[in-house]
Design a protein that fits this description.
The protein is an alpha/beta fold. 32% of the residues lie in helices and 15% in strands. The protein has nine helices and 13 strands. The strands form three sheets. The chain has a seven-stranded mixed β-sheet with strand order 3-12-11-13-7-4-6, with helices on both faces. The relative contact order is 0.15.
Amino acid sequence: MKYRAVVIDGKRIWKNTLAYLFTSGILFILFICLISGNTFFFPSGEDMISTSIPAIGVANNLPEKRKEVIQNTSRQMLNLLFGFSPSDSRTILDTEYPLLKAVTKAPLVSKAIGAETKKSDQNLPAATAPVLTAVPPEQQNINPENARPIKAINACPNKDGSKKIVISNETDYSIDVDQMLSESLNIDLSLPGPKILVVHTHATEAYAPDGAAEYDKTASDRSEDINKNVVKVGEEVTKIFNAMGIETIHDTKLHDVPSFNGSYSNSLKTVEEKIKQYPSIQIVFDIHRDSVVYADETKARAVTEINGRPAAQLMFVVGTDARGLYHPNWQENMKFAVHMQNAINQKYPSLMRYINLRTERFNGHTTGASMIIEVGTSGNSLNEAIYGATLAAQVIAEEIKK
């Protein structure tokens, strides 16, 4: 009897199998992208990638029921293929972009990419601020199937009306608030030229309509119209500073256009250019808008009542060198934030949220008094945001002039 030798090259078979699975997976993903649009593979509205891929979104006209079946099936298949959820671009990108990773720490709260909040807001009680006359979803051109509620919350940590400073510390550094308050700020207003620079890393962050009780979950809460986004808030804040005798310049560039990715690099370039042009700049305010959405898709509206009017609540975000980036003066930034928070708390005890000390740098290394100011959330109206921000700006100007 004659035998034929059969040689099984396990390594080659394994490689070919992996190659086949990988190729099949990629083809499957492309196929799903083409037939179901960007609603499952990329986050709608706050999307970072889909705008650069024209093929994505070509089939958004599919019936909702059919799209939902396709999307649910594709999510499960992609989880099996990759071991994580490609339906959330943050899970893909957060290892490369620390801000995204920090944002996705909150397991019960879904937040817009780039928001600088912490999960502690998720259990906040309803606010006592007056609710404006509700705008029905049909008047906002919202499909009833896509309408989700907006809930007013009181995001101020001092529920007892006290004026203490509360810090949400996400670093390993210890902060002595009393020591910082006892120290003077290193700000010299005698230098000729502008002292404050107002910028917007995420300039397209926009707000809800006045009185909106619901929002469209499929719509973007960003806008390139500078009269509808945080640039308008920055414009009003700049007016306050200048009117109170502190020369301030406002940069209105949309640093997150055309791509959200790289917005911090874009704004850093702007800040460095402005400081080179105006060496007198000592304070940089990067004005943002937060976003907090609960697991049931209810959107939070951080609001309080001041002088009978609803005002969006604010949060200072201070970066550090905890991730190894150059930032030798972060303690000065923190001291500045502590002084400003304390001054605002004395006059408007319910206006401020906690100070958020973070491991990311957030371009804070450019001056000794730089920080992010989160003005309201995507559930607030622009008018609420402007009112809250200008109240804080008046106090900040008074404190700086001291």
